[in-house]
Amino acid sequence: MTNKPRILIVYTGGTIGMVKDYKTKALKAFDFSQIIQKIPEIAQLNCVLESISFEEPIDSSNMNTAFYVNIAEIIEQNYNSFDGFVVLTGSDTMSYISSALSFMFENLCKPVIFTGSQLPIGDLRTDAKENIITSIEIACAQKKGVPVVQEVCLYFEYKLYRANRTTKINADQFEAFTSMNYPPLAESGVKLDFNTHYLKKYSKTKSNLIVRKNLVTDVVVLKLFPGITENTIKNMLAIPNLKGVVLESYGSGNAPTASWFLNLLEKAIKSGIKIVNVTQCAGGSVQQGHYETSFNLKKIGVISGNDITTETAIAKLMYLLAEDLTEKEFRKYYETPLRGEITT
Ligand code: ASP
User: Fold this and answer.
1) For 18, which of 159, 235, 259, 271 is 20 to 30 Å away at the CA?
2) Bigger pLDDT: 294 or 248?
């Protein structure tokens, strides 16, 4: 028996696992069991590595909540036999997927690190190698036998972020993600530096991992823009079975004061639809009541998303809508940080 940390790599698809067929120039998924062959440097890491692959690797644009459950179940089934997990997905929807997983895992006390790459692993200038190698190092990091990271994170281009704080901001550059409202949890340079202060605090009470697999997908994002019509909003709020709306408002949570607009929202809230106010700005937060243009939203019962990202606002809606909560409890839980996703 070895004392080396045991790390499970879960490969779901995305650019990272692709190689170029130099004849046809097309990108195709490679057999992930050959990962050590593709990155021989991995053998130098002081850990025991195993990998599991989706039977059919997918582009992250094809992700849905059934795949989230697949990932969660792989981790659940292997939770006790591994010290950490590195999940490889496409970067396009990685912030959505990893945010959702952060809510699905309750009492998580092992690292779950999401990563991917902008260039395929077989490409000469690939960013995949650094992203995978450092993600594994982070998943291995322990202090006195306890994992340094005990939450769901996203590692990309030398920075480790809390997953539910991230957004993909660039389709071309290696620095594809940012976390506007929360500092990086670690930075990788010559050394790997953890910003210990910002990591989830280690909980001394050991509770078993709970995996919440019910997610409600009857949600919609309603992005405001000057000129949006009554008809558009009316039809969106009339979607059959609609249960939750992420309202992307302006600035610090501001929206039109027109009575048709407020009446439509109020009617939806009275019918039981949960409406959460998030800002369209990349950074900063909603402060309902700060301006006259957000005062009424608060009055009619719109929930404040504070500084939550849109990706995480959706994930949190999907998660909380599946719980049996009263109106008051729903608001309370939504406005309280459950996995460090909002600032208090
Ligand atoms: N389209 C790819 C995906 O998200 C892009 C990537 O892997 O970065 O699956």
Assistant:
1) 159
2) 248
